[in-house]
Amino acid sequence: VLTNKKISDDLWYRNLVDVYEERFWQHWKDRLEKKDEAYSEFILDKIEKIIFYFDNKRYIDFFELFWDYDFKINKLDDRKNLKELIIWLKEIRQTWKVSDVFNYIYEKNILYKNDKITKFKNDLLEKIDDSELLDRQNKNKKFQENLFSLEYKEFIRFNEYIENKTPYSTQHWTKWAEYDNVLLVMDDSLWNMYNY
């Protein structure tokens, strides 16, 4: 029986799931998979898409991902510089921590914090008297700390999974003739009893 946690173990992004589950409990999947959280949205819809478009030479899509205040291209040397920065970004994603990747992106002025990340960071610094809001702020601080200590490649692996680039991909559109072996799991109406 495949579960989200079993898949995350097999695809080596379990720590990422654990960080989101600790912070968002039963809503962790929405926050991560549906990118309903500032960092997951920024990483998966911005950084990883930039890399994807760059690798696939989809330069129109690539440049559309940059906001007006991101990396500026005014001359040919700017394009060459951006290319070198992106090539290095591709490399460091494989071995660096999430915090290091963010620091690189910001220090090299490739991308700037979006509004959601800026608001999230500002909320962490806000002085709070209300105990319930203070508890939420502390949870968010711990979440950010845990997230930034992860290896960035867990996001890469997770992104491969949700983009259907793994053996666990769900291909609803297939007719099964494309594959030599297909496993069909049929529910026998009890959660732990299946026919294969």
Question: What would you note in describing this structure?
Answer:
The protein is mostly helical and 196 residues long. The chain has ten helices and two strands. A two-stranded antiparallel ribbon has the order 1-2. A hairpin with a 6-residue loop joins strand 1 and strand 2 (194-195). It is flat, with a radius of gyration of 20 Å.
Indicate the topology:
Layout: H1 4-10, H2 14-24, H3 28-33, H4 38-55, H5 59-64, H6 76-92, H7 98-107, H8 115-125, H9 131-149, H10 153-162, E1 186-187, E2 194-195
Antiparallel strand pairs: 1-2
Helix pairs in contact: 2-9
Q: First CA to last CA: what distance?
A: 11 Å
Uncertain parts:
none
> Which series of helices and strands comes N to C?
HHHHHHHHHHEE
Number of strands: 2
Main sheet strand line-up: 1-2
Largest sheet: 2 strands, antiparallel
Name the descriptors.
two-stranded antiparallel sheet, mainly alpha, flat, single chain
What's a concise summary of this model?
The chain is mostly helical and about 200 residues long.
